[in-house]
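Weekend entry, working from home. Most of the wet-lab plans are on hold until the incubator is repaired, so I used the time to fold the two sequences that have been sitting in the queue since the last round of cloning. Logging both here for the record. First:
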Amino acid sequence: MPSDAAKRDAKQQVMYIYVSDNGEVFLGNKSMGMRDLSTRLVDEFEKNVDQHIMVLVSEKVSVQTMVTVLDKIYLTGARNISVADWKM
C-alpha cells in the first residue's frame, strides 16, 4: 500500500500541455490531436481527479486557439488548470 507521502507526491505531479506557434498541441513531448488529448486526459482524471494541468502557450498563439484548448481540457473534467507563457 502506498504511503501518504507517495500519494501526495502523485497528486502534486503536474501534467504539461504545450501549444506551439502554429497551434499544435503537445502533451509532454508528444504531439496530439484534440481528440487524442481529450481521451488521454479523461483516462488521467479517472486515476487522479486532482491532477494539475499546466498549459504553456506560445506568445504567437491566438486567444481563440488558447480558449479552444482550455475548453477541451475543462470538458475532460480538469478543474486544476494553470496557464503561462511558453518562450520557445
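Second, folded right after the first finished:
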Amino acid sequence: MKNEQTVAWAWVLENASLIEGIVKKLSNGSVLDFEDLRSDVLVRLVEKWPNYDKKKSSPSTWIWWQTLAVRKQLLKKHRSFSSLKKTTRFRTQQPLRLFN
C-alpha cells in the first residue's frame, strides 16, 4: 500500500504542470478557490491511482475527469453552505427575547 502511494505521488509530481493547467482552467470564473480545488484534486488523484489504466486513457483525460468530480463535490458543498448562511442570516435578524 505504501509503495503504491509513493508511485502515485511520483506520478502526480511528474504531471504537476498538466494538473495545474487543468485545475486553473476549471476554477477560472468559478466561486471555487484555486488552491482548495488543487489540493483536493491532488488527494483524489493519489486515492484513485489504483483505478487509473494507462491503456484506457491519457493522463490529461484522467486528470480532467477526476478534477471535474472534485469540482462538482466542492460546488455542491459551496451551494449547501451558501443556503445555510442565508437561512442563518435570516434567523439572526430577529431580536432575541429572553423575557416577556
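Plan for Monday: verify the second prediction. Residues 5 and 84 are 37 Å apart (CA to CA).
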